[in-house]
Amino acid sequence: MKTHRYKILLFLLLLQFVPGILFAEEAVTDSGTTAWMLTSTALVLLMVPGLALFYGGLVRTKNVLGTMMHSFVAMAIIGVLWMVCGYALSFGKNALGGWIGWDPGFLFLSSLDNSITSAKIPEYVFAMFQGKFAIITPALIAGAFAERVSFRGYCLFITLWSLLVYCPLCHWVWASDGFLFNLGPKGAIDFAGGTVVHISSGVSALVAALYLGSRRGYPKTAMQPNNLVLTLFGAGLLWVGWFGFNAGSAVASNLDTARALTVTQVAAASGALSWILFEAMKHGKATSLGLASGILAGLVIITPAAGVVQPLGALILGALASLVCITAISIKNKLGYDDSLDVFGIHGIAGMSGAILLTFFIRQSWMKDAATIAGGSWTTFQQLGVQAAAVLITVMYSALITWGLVVLVNKTVGFRLNEKSEKAGIDQSTHGEQGYGLLNLN
Fold it and tell me: What one-character DSSP code corresponds to residue 438?
């Protein structure tokens, strides 16, 4: 009898000091989704050095380091800014009439320590994933005014642009109370950044390029790429990273993730193939630059559509991306403005095309859900109106604010390099370095 009493006492002691042994608390995170989102976050960050290589190979030798620095410094500046206040401004609750988000608890990510999202991942992971989008978007703009801007002016510009353009757009499109998120029964479709990332950066790039003017000597002086090997390598890294960019935007590890990953692959391949076929038919040869440009065009056009189209739609969109981007670049060459690395011609044009044309390839199940929410019917043309409104708002807002910021930066710290520094090259005049151990820096 005493033996039984001792066993009962021992059992009660175990319950006191090791409650988890018998009553383990149910996990609040989905380990599979969390693992995929961690991977996606790393993949999107990989796109930034990929972009640096892509842009760096396209400029002249004397500007290769300075151009690559534009991508890498965004990792530093926006990486800090996002933690301090960017996440709060983007994903906080509506403030100032819905123009921006705001949540004091999100400042310095201070309230996220024990937070789990509805997708059952730590909110830290979601914040870091979104932060990578915030980093690469202003870095994209740099390609339009490559080889002719000051480093400090660029740093100030991307800081202000991120706060006043990127964060509001991010809130409008992706925050649950954003007005574009709630436009129509299922909102304006932007699965992974057609409006927030590519249209905003493309339009802003065009505005900045027009205000700052052409590179000295353009277009009369030949300005050949210094290293297309870097550009191809960068394009490859962008293609790989884009799987995290698009498939990660499902914030899940399920059928939606698989769909997004599949159409991303199809559109990129279609864009690349279409571009080099066009070159072969027109010029009798396919180029590495054309292949890299086609990859990028296909990836951009599918970005807003990755959650709603099927593989056939992705195939068509990828081909259309090459067609519209080649046309846009041809028009640029005729007009003579200097969008150095065709940021508007690829990101802006393909982003707008994807946001609009996706409407004609939406899977039927999505449209049925929209009709149910609308309490009746919801047609392709009604969704087209929503998409057009989102594109127009993004274009107008990005253009207006960017123009003001470029003027402000140029009038204060200076944005455009002086003639002497530009002729010497950014690497030497700004950074006191050179990209290659060669005597010829042109």
Answer: -
Whether residue 195 contacts residue 304, with contact meaning beta carbons closer than 8 Å, is answered with yes
What does the block give as tokens for 173? 């499109």
Type of residue found at 317: L
Does residue 168 contact residue 402 with C-beta atoms inside 8 Å?
Answer: no
- Closest Cα to residue 343, out of 133, 193, 118, 142? 142
Determine the residue type at 245: F
| Angle, helix 123-141 to helix 167-174, in steps of 10 degrees | 130
**Beta bridge pairs of residue 233:** none
Q: Nearest-CA neighbor of 325 among 305, 354, 304?
A: 354
Task: Establish how many alpha carbons lie within 13 A of residue 203's alpha carbon, considering only the half-sphere containing its beta carbon.
Answer: 24
Per-residue pLDDT, 376: 86
The tokens describing 93, both together, are 């609750």
- 304-350 residue pLDDT tens: 999 999 999 999 999 999 999 999 999 999 999 999 999 999 999 99
Tell me, yes or no, if the pTM score tops 0.85: yes
Task: List the domains of the chain with CATH numbers.
Answer: 33-426 (1.10.3430.10)
**64-81 vs 123-141: helix crossing angle, rounded to 10:** 150
* Token pair of 21 as six digits: 């042994």
CB contact set of 84 (below 8 Å; sequence gap of 6+)? 107, 108
Q: Is 96 left (phi over 0), alpha (psi -120 to 50) or beta?
A: left
Please state the separation of Cα 358 from the chain's center in Å.
18
**Amino acid at the residue 298:** G
* Amino acid identity, position 111: S
- Tokens encoding 433: 């370095």
Residue 300 exposure: Cα atoms within 13 Å on the Cβ side: 34
- CA angle, 152 as apex, 148 and 158 as ends, to 5°? 90
